[in-house]
Write a structure and sequence with these properties.
The complex is a heterodimer of chains A (278) and B (257). With 278 residues, chain A is an all-alpha fold. Chain A contains eleven helices and no strands. The termini of chain B are far apart. Classes of the chains: A mainly alpha (278), B alpha/beta (257).
Amino acid sequence: MQDIGLWDSMFLWRDAVIACSIAAVLLSYLGVYVVLMRSAFVSAAVSQLAGLGVVVALVVTAAGGPNISPIALGVGLGVLGSGFFALSGRSQRMTTDAALALAVVGASAFTLVLARFLTLDYQHVQSALYGDAVVAEASELWMLGGTALLVLGSHAWLRYRFLLVAFDSDAARAQGMRTDLHRLLLGLGIGLSISVATRALGALPAFAFTVAPASAALLLTSRLRVAFGLAVGFGLSAAVLGYYLSFMNDLPTGPTLVAVALLPLLPGGALALTRRLR
Amino acid sequence: MAESSRENSGTLLRFEQVSLGYRKPLLPPIDFTVKSGVFLGVVGPNGSGKSTLLKTLCGIIQPLKGKIVWPHGRARIGYVPQRNAIDSIWPISAREVVALGRVPSLSMFGQLRSTHFEQADETLKSVGLADLGHRPFRELSGGQRQRVLLARALAIEPSLLVLDEPTSALDPVGEQRLLGDLARLNEDKGIAVVVVSHQLSLTARISKELAILDGERQVFRHGPTGEITRPEILEEIYGAKATVHHMDGAPVITFEV
């Protein structure tokens, strides 16, 4: 890769870096909610459900059924799943983490079983299922951009309502607020973002961007606004730096993005340890 | 019609054949009324259904059967949850907690503004936490957190203040101080107060009315404090011989075990 200059080869990496950056900003911001609501595995569950949707669409089409868009069904199933998780916390018999674990296990199993019926090569199925952070298609960029506008726009409008229902849903409900609707909107936004980002970057980077920058930020600060800012900063830095390191050193892009996204946890963890020892 | 209107004049809300519970009813259907300006203590043994009653009253959970009638429209409810209901992972300051209480009353496109945060500071001052507004909520003591949650409930200028075990994290002095503050809010501002507690004597001392319940024995009683703290009623609920003394006109209750 070093044979041609970084800027000369911009046509190779520009769209992928933009896609990574949009996904990182979006998921790192939403990740603060995900971590604070103790639903970190929502990302894994939504990714697996999106993957199941993709395989179902491919199998149905291959079996001579209607031509279903794998992306549409994947994103649709991911969003539906996140809507379900957003409301499942009110159940007295099933905790959110148990529902998430069941979704991960169930969706993974069905995806693997159904994938056996596909005649496409392994690489194609993997790419269709979990995306590829190395390159970004124009359609993925548009979907990511549109999703970011929609979701971040809804947060600009409903930010305090989302914060209240995530922080103390009962108090909001006691004042007559429609908490289920707001929890659902918050959950759908998270699900849509994770599903679309999973398609563009892959399941592992999407999971990492949802959990790692927010966790690091929450370890470093006791201020909510600062936590959102730090998380977004960490996520964006990890996207750009991770892609740069991967490109310059010919490293696998997805795992490099994840490794760099985990770096801010080091100072965060050290600070938390110092606080505990004090 | 005139009779019904008279009945409703001092009524804030009325339970009509309400079955409480999540899936199964905790008690036989109950009828009772919360009057405007009342100080109602809700007491009973641990696990008796006190918090379920409170959450049903606030609309947090729906009755399994029956209905809750608000003759003059739904009151503005200031809800103070149990202290451990708030997750301490949240990096949120005391003034942000209080200001967030204003969110449900914002218009559709409304946002919290600096005035809301200034009002939050004022409310914190009124509950004795003037200097702690910028402190992270999770770093406050149990008593201070309870006062922040009280400030959040007061910030919306409620006509009904509902508190779930507000003294559970407090030492005896903190308990008396908080309950004294609630009694003053009730007397001076006419705010109706419904407070759940498992501390019978303390609650009976400051409540004008008591509701006493036990899901296990399927018992619910509600009435003026003097009437409900009769030994035979307490024995029925708690299953132990009760003695009621009076000190400065307030009941002091002991059980033989």
